[in-house]
Automatic annotation (TrEMBL):
SUPFAM superfamilies: Phospholipase D/nuclease, PHP14-like, PPK N-terminal domain-like. This is Polyphosphate kinase. An intermediate of this reaction is the autophosphorylated ppk in which a phosphate is covalently linked to a histidine residue through a N-P bond. ATP binds at N60, Y482, R578, H606. It comes from Petropleomorpha daqingensis. Its EC number is 2.7.4.1. Signal peptide: none annotated. Keywords: ATP-binding, Kinase, Magnesium, Metal-binding, Nucleotide-binding, Phosphoprotein, Transferase. CDD domains: PLDc_PaPPK1_C1_like, PLDc_PaPPK1_C2_like.
Length: 695
């Protein structure tokens, strides 16, 4: 199973399409993060939910710089002159991204400083500076500094005997200027703000106080204790972002685990790609930082107020339910619940497929219970599963360990290249191996991103296979905040397909054709292109035709061009895209039959659904693949054809509701601008609907 070559991505279209038909993917991603920021600006939301979206915006932007901007800078440093599909050079992309980012950062800071902070104060939640603290509280904070903070601080001098220290990525740092009072000589030192101490320190009694002092303020107030005998002249806060995009050189003769561990050790020393400073930064200190970090002024982001607002999660965690969304408890799927007695998942699946929609329907009482029952069932012979990301204390992993220790054959494909989860996944892989599981790390050159589980069970002398295929990770924590879909099925065709797929992932099989699956890197793009063209034929021959996609990102040029051609052929195309969209809808003669909308809300819209009208016999596919080069060419992805009639009806109804004109969403215009519209909260409706079904 080898990656599809890059040359296959730009097959000539049947007709000439305009050169300006693509939107820039990096700017489109920034537009997505701007939609997150709009939720922080929305005064109709509970106050701490707005704080949550401020934190999400900040952490999103951190990852964008660590990966996407780092990648652009790496390519720029090689002297490549390649243009993006929208025609921009790498330099032009970096320039536009820098300008757009600085605008968003200022907007983000202003929302926090001028809007959210005053409202927090009205609600009794305050962030103060050292000068605002009374004597009694100051005494208590001095003791806290002495006992909890001072011991972990390490001031690092910079002089001929002390080279400029390594600045770790995403760490907060104080640049300190000190003077020798005897000689008058000035020196520079760096003090790292520790990340294992709470960023916001309670002022007053910790169990009652909702007043907080930023940790960097506490440290700054006590700098003379770190530099006794010297005069502290000034201090300035800064933060560095480094390239964190791993490039593992995979060799068939080298242990992938060892190669990845070596690369992880290098990642912390990646080149700097962003320097965040406050608007009070001293120009001379800034010049020193730029020189030592080997970056330019274009890489400086000036932030009004506090740096690193991702730390606002600490405020969101306050026990103030009146300032948050109403608590929501996922409902057990009606077919998996019978009073106080949990149903046997296997018995239910023999009666028909179960479509689960998280977080509205519980992951714990569906997918997790499926794996746990399989692990405990003496009739189960084998469990095979892919793991891309899971939680710190994973009941799924625990169940697989129990199954292996009970003598079952357990095969787990752990994708140790899952970005930012590499170390956790290496740890899981070793724990599973220790328990006796057969652990596989995937295929050379490909990430295994599909979400699949196969259970083999003996029933009265007959072997039956039970399956789960989903759009989200086997992670019970994210399953409560990510919107995802999954199918639990005993369909023998799906069981046969997953058996073939696992043989490909664990052995040397070259399987490329499946009964109910499309599998990347060979089958997803070509399969979707075939189905788009089929809709065009239906339209040409007067039969019902239509395309509806729900994905996180749409970037692949071949898919986009096929959708343009479908629009020109008269096929209505509805796209629900949470994040990046490089397609330009509503352009006369090109895409006037295409509508693009985005829902960003309480839950992260994460499911991928592809629907085709198919001449009146609707076809639905769900799975793990977004419509991007990496998914279609460099990952093992799975899309499942949904065959169960009840599940098809449920999927159709879900898409109908999500794409209803009154639903609150953002709509993309032909100029690339997103406009907010609609009043109905789609996610709130689904919460209510799930509660009614469970009740």
């Amino acid at each position: 199973m080898a990656p599809q070559s890059a040359s296959t991505r730009t097959a000539p279209a049947e007709q000439t399409l305009p050169a300006d038909r693509f939107l820039n993917r990096e700017l489109s991603w920034l537009d997505f993060n701007a939609r997150v920021l709009e939720l922080a600006e929305d005064d109709a939301l509970p106050l701490l939910e707005r704080v949550k979206f401020l934190a999400i915006f900040a952490s999103n932007l951190d990852e964008f710089f660590m990966v996407r901007i780092a990648g652009l800078k790496r390519r720029h440093s090689t002297g490549l002159t390649v243009r993006s599909p929208d025609g921009l050079t790498i330099r032009e992309q970096l320039t536009r991204v820098t300008e757009r980012t600085q605008d968003l950062v200022h907007r983000h800071a202003n929302v926090f400083l001028k809007d959210v902070t005053p409202l927090l104060e009205e609600s009794g939640i305050r962030i103060v500076h050292w000068a605002e603290i009374g004597d009694t509280d100051a005494t208590r904070l001095r003791e806290y500094f002495r006992d909890q903070v001072f011991p972990v601080l390490t001031p690092l001098a910079v002089d001929p005997a002390h080279p400029f220290p390594y600045i770790s990525g995403l760490s907060l740092n104080l640049a300190v200027s000190v003077r020798d009072t005897d000689t008058g000589t000035s020196h520079f030192a760096r003090v790292k703000v520790p990340n294992n101490v709470p960023r916001f320190v309670p002022v007053g009694q910790a169990d009652t106080s909702a007043t907080f002092l930023p940790l960097e303020d506490l440290i700054a107030a006590h700098l003379p204790q770190l530099f006794p005998g010297l005069e502290v002249v000034a201090h300035h806060l800064f933060r560095v972002t480094r390239n964190a995009d791993l490039e593992v050189e995979e060799d068939r003769d080298e242990d992938l685990l060892q190669a990845l561990e070596r690369e992880l050790a290098r990642r912390r020393f990646g080149p700097a790609v962003r320097l965040e400073v406050t608007d009070a930064m001293d120009p001379q200190i800034l010049e020193l930082l730029l020189s030592e970090l080997e970056i330019g002024t274009q890489d400086v982001v000036v932030v009004p107020g506090l740096l690193d607002l991702a730390s606002l999660w600490q405020l969101y965690d306050l026990d103030r339910p009146e300032l948050k969304d109403e608590p929501f408890v996922p409902a057990t799927h009606p077919r998996l619940s019978e009073g106080e007695t949990p149903q046997s998942v296997f018995a239910m699946l023999r009666e028909g497929d179960v479509l689960v929609h998280h977080p509205y329907q519980s992951f714990a009482t569906s997918v997790q219970r499926f794996i746990e029952q399989a692990a405990a069932d003496p009739n189960v012979l084998a469990i095979k599963q892919t793991l891309y990301r899971t939680s710190g204390d994973s009941p799924i992993v625990n169940a697989l360990v129990d199954a292996a220790e009970a003598g079952k054959q357990v095969v787990v494909l752990v994708e140790i290249k899952a970005r930012f989860d590499e170390e956790a996944n290496i740890s899981w892989a070793r724990e599973l191996e220790k328990a006796g599981c057969h652990v596989v790390y995937g295929l050379v050159g490909l990430k295994t991103h599909c979400k699949t589980a196969l259970v083999v069970r003996r029933e009265g002398g007959v072997i039956r296979r039970y399956c789960h295929i989903g759009t989200g990770n086997y992670n019970p924590k994210t399953a409560r905040i990510y919107e995802d879909l999954g199918i639990l099925t005993a369909d023998p065709r799906v069981g046969a397909d997953l058996t073939d797929l696992f043989n490909t992932l664990t052995g040397y099989s070259r399987q490329t054709a499946y009964r109910t699956l499309m599998v990347a890197p060979h089958g997803v793009r070509n399969g979707l292109l075939d189905k788009i063209r089929r809709e065009m034929r239906h339209a040409a021959e007067g039969r019902p035709a239509g395309i509806r996609f729900k994905v996180n990102s749409l970037v692949d040029e071949q898919i986009i061009d096929a959708l343009y051609e479908a629009s020109i052929a008269g096929v209505p195309v509805e796209l629900l895209i949470r994040g990046i969209c490089a397609l330009r809808p509503g352009v006369a003669g090109l895409s006037e039959n295409i509508e693009v909308r985005s829902i960003v809300g309480r839950f992260l819209e994460h499911s991928r659904v592809m629907s085709f009208t198919n001449g009146g016999d609707p076809e639905f596919w769900i799975g793990s693949s977004d419509l991007m080069h990496r998914n279609l060419d460099r990952r093992v992805e799975v899309l499942l054809k949904v065959c169960d009639e009840r599940a098809r009806e449920e999927l159709g109804a879900t898409l109908d509701r999500a794409m209803a004109p009154e639903v609150r969403c953002w709509t993309l215009g032909p100029d690339g601008e997103w406009t907010r519209s609609g009043e109905c909260d789609y996610q709130a409706e689904l919460i209510h609907q799930a509660g009614e079904q469970a009740g």
